[in-house]
Write a structure and sequence with these properties.
By secondary structure, the protein is α/β, with parallel strands linked by helices. Helices cover 39% and strands 18% of the residues. It has one domain: Glycerol-3-phosphate (1)-acyltransferase. The protein starts with 9 loop residues before the first helix and ends with a helix.
């Protein structure tokens, strides 16, 4: 059976354009619901009893992307699962997203990537925390993560993270990016738990929520990111 093909949700992106242009916010609930509604067969969520009622947690999932499936699809499926368990919200999940890319090289010339104008505006509209691609702009990433850590003191929505970053792909579990371990530890010191999520396909997209990893265990771990990725791998490979 050929892999499922989920097209880019251009209609949903078009309807968000006024918010992108004006620098205002757009409903993550509305956007992700429209993305999921176009996914056929619909995704299946398992382990939703593990999603807590309070918002003080970090969602960590494998970066499941391949030709015919953009990371936006599983992210939207996770968002709608959180919304189904916790109730309606303007931003059921606030995702950490890559929104700054390396410059294009034309021989000895370098030109700014067009995504550097568009992607941060999309990230802002969808209540995300934008970071740079593989260290392309460390200062940009640092500003965003400082804001995330400040918001973590009084979370009103869980934070979503794909620890492998854009190097992750469907069908394999990689290592967390440098800096993820430190971020998880810093959040754990603020009492933020981690909800591991495994993404896989069984003739449809399957989202499996695991049991919470408590802050004490994260703080005591020799490598919190490796602990989290191990839990994700167990869920994704069942």
């Amino acid at each position: 059976m050929p892999p499922l093909q989920y097209g880019a949700p251009w209609g949903a992106i078009y309807r968000m354009w006024p918010s992108i242009a004006s620098g205002s916010r757009y409903s993550v609930d509305v956007f992700s619901r429209e993305v999921v509604s176009r996914m056929q067969p619909p995704p299946r969520s398992e382990g939703m009893e593990n999603i807590p009622a309070d918002p003080g947690f970090l969602i960590c999932a494998n970066h499941y992307q391949r030709k015919g499936m953009w990371i936006l699809h599983p992210a939207s499926a996770i968002t709608q699962s959180i919304r189904a368990k916790r109730g309606p919200s303007e931003a059921p999940v606030r995702w950490v997203v890559t929104a700054n890319w390396p410059k294009w090289r034309l021989g000895s010339w370098q030109v700014p990537n067009p995504g550097d104008w568009l992607l941060p505006r999309v990230a802002h509209a969808l209540h995300c925390y934008p970071v740079s691609f593989a260290g392309a702009n460390p200062a940009y990433t640092a500003r965003s993560l400082r804001r995330l850590l400040q918001d973590a003191r009084s979370l009103n929505a869980p934070i979503g993270l794909f620890p492998e970053g854009v190097g992750g792909a469907a069908g394999r579990i990689g290592e967390a990016l440098p800096g993820v371990e430190r971020l998880i530890q810093m959040l754990a010191r603020q009492g933020v738990r981690v909800l591991p999520v495994g993404i896989r396909e069984e003739n449809r997209l399957v989202i499996r929520f695991g049991t919470m990893i408590e802050p004490g265990l994260l703080a005591e771990a020799g490598d919190a990111a490796r602990l989290v990725m191990g839990r994700i791998a167990d869920l994704a490979q069942r």
